[in-house]
Amino acid sequence: METLHPGNMLIAEPFLKDPNFSRTVVILCESLPEGSVGFVLSRTLESTLAELLPDVTKLPIPVHYGGPVQQDTLHFLHRKPDLINGGMPLNQEVHWGGDFSEAIDLLHKGLLNESDIRFFLGYSGWSAGQLDKELGEHTWLVCPGTTELIFHPSPTQIWKDALLHMGGEYRQLIHYPSDPQLN
What range defines the domain where residue 139 resides? Predict the structure, then answer.
């Protein structure tokens, strides 16, 4: 069984039926014996940050679907740890969270731009042993998260590009139908 680490990406196998995770890529932010937390990278919501927090900002920055858990919470990933205090590193460039007010202020001042930060509504969560069980069932492929994929300019392409990045036999998976009975 593969040991998971923050910064790993979970790539949904092509036949995963769960509508929350079908053809998605999740960045893993925390993997502890008591559970795991991550965010879906490959789905953008209709809402913008300005629509969700009109008293905080007028910035029309897209908000991503983080997952089905606690859809009333807002989270963020960024690649400016030198500017935003308090984030947890996922790799050398990407950090999870930090001082939210500081991030918003930097966006307003133009010192941080939309390509440096991703906001997520809700999160993806697994209880103790749940993600290990799913990995044993081959629900997810695991690979190191890259900054290029985490901050991909086209979220709907992340699943395909992550499989292409893995190379070899994984490249073929992008051609599989979502329902094998349609083949």
Answer: 8-175
Please state the domain count of the chain.
Answer: 1
Give the integer Cα–Cα distance in Å for 165 and 151: 15
Cα–chain center distance at 17: 19
CA angle 131, 135, 144 (to 5 degrees): 90
Average pLDDT of adjacent 10-residue blocks, the chain of 183 residues: 85 89 95 94 94 91 96 96 95 95 95 95 96 93 93 93 84 61 53
Cβ 39 vs Cβ 26: under 8 Å: yes
Residue 132: C-alpha distances to residues 1, 6, 18, 40, 138 (Å): 8, 15, 17, 18, 10
- Cβ-proximal residues to 166 (8 Å cutoff; 6+ apart), any chain: 11, 141, 143
- Cα–Cα distances in angstroms (integers) from residue 53 to residues 35, 45, 49, 162, in the given order: 29, 14, 6, 32
Tokens of 32: 């502890």
Q: What is the CATH number of the domain that holds 75?
A: 3.40.1740.10
Q: How far apart are CA 55 and CA 72, in angstroms?
A: 16
Residue 166 pLDDT = 83
- DSSP 3-state assignment of 51? helix
Bridge partners (DSSP) listed for residue 12? 140
Distance CA 8, CA 38 (A): 10
